[in-house]
Amino acid sequence: MARVPRSNRRAIRIADRCVRAPMLIHRSDLQPLPSAETMTQTTSFKIGEKVRHCKRPEWGVGSIAKIEVITREGRPDRRIWIRFPNVGEKTVLASLAELEHVESDSLAIAASSSPTLADMHARADAGWLGEISKSKPEDMMIALPDAATDPFIPVGRRLKNTFALYRFDGGSKLIDWAVAQSGLNDPMSRFSRHELESFFQRWRFALDAQLGKLLQEARKEPGALEDASRGAPPAAMAAMRKISQFR
Which residues of 10-38 are buried (b: 16+ CB within 10 A; e: fewer)? Predict the structure, then answer.
């Protein structure tokens, strides 16, 4: 084996120390991870686009009418005017409102990852899956959103999300509930009022049952129920009291 010249051996030792030496990272070099607000602001919106407000799916699918770039608390933000079919024009801030793009005529609900009746209609020609989807639309109309049932979500958040669903208390809110549940701007074009009332009763029964489970689960986490119930709709508090009487 040929001998390595002394000058080359010294260069190899220096290079080896450089490779094995720990890399020093200064605090000033660290970049903070983007916050949820920053990530929301990076979502692009354009005039004419269809969007859904995730926390108010009963508003239906709206069309962006105007966008204004503003500065809020020293940060860039956007004020967005949206025309919703069921509530008229609403003005929201991009950093605060949870808006989801709705692709073309797809009416997939954004309040949860669960499919809606509109999703099923969109898959109507998708082979055997489409046939199954078309067979039982009522299953979608009585399903609870993942935000209220997903066991991987902390019980306090599930409780808060479940309480929020009680804003749909039937009567004048029946159509709002049907819009949110089906993802259709006009659910009466698909169901009769009698059908919607029947679906709502079954959905409310499932909601009460889920609330009962969460109340029992919340006993293991002190403070979770108190925090989640702040600002809850009156119907939610009434349901909680009724359920507690039988436990």
Answer: eeeeeeeeeeeeeeeeeeeeeeeeeeeee
Identify whether the C-beta of residue 3 lies closer than 8 Å to the C-beta of residue 12.
Answer: no
Are both 96 and 147 inside the same structural domain? no
Within a domain: residue 79? yes
Distances (CA, A) of 216 to 147, 155, 210: 18, 10, 10
Q: Which token pair is 146?
A: 């993942």
Shared domain for 84 and 174, answered yes or no, is no
What is residue 130's predicted lDDT score, i.e. its pLDDT? Answer: 46
Domain span holding position 73:
38-104
Is residue 211 a contact partner of residue 239, using CB atoms and an 8 Å limit? Answer: yes
Write the single-letter amino acid at 47.
Answer: I
Residue 24 domain-assigned (yes or no): no
Confirm whether 131 is domain-assigned: no
Query: For the chain (length 247 residues), average pLDDT per consecutive 10?
Result: 52 44 37 40 76 84 89 89 88 87 53 47 45 63 92 94 91 89 88 94 96 93 89 92 81
Residue 210: predicted pLDDT: 96
Q: What is the pTM of this model?
A: 0.61
Give the number of domains in the chain. 2
Task: Give yes or no: residues 99 and 141 share one domain.
Answer: no
**Alpha carbon distance 193, 205 (integer Å):** 18
The answer on 144 and 100 residing in a single domain is no
* Residue 69 bridge partners (DSSP): 78
Which pLDDT score is estimated for 5? 53
Contact by Cβ (8 Å): 159, 226: no
How much is the pLDDT for 128?
Answer: 36
Q: To 10 degrees, what angle do helices 155-165 and 234-245 make?
A: 110
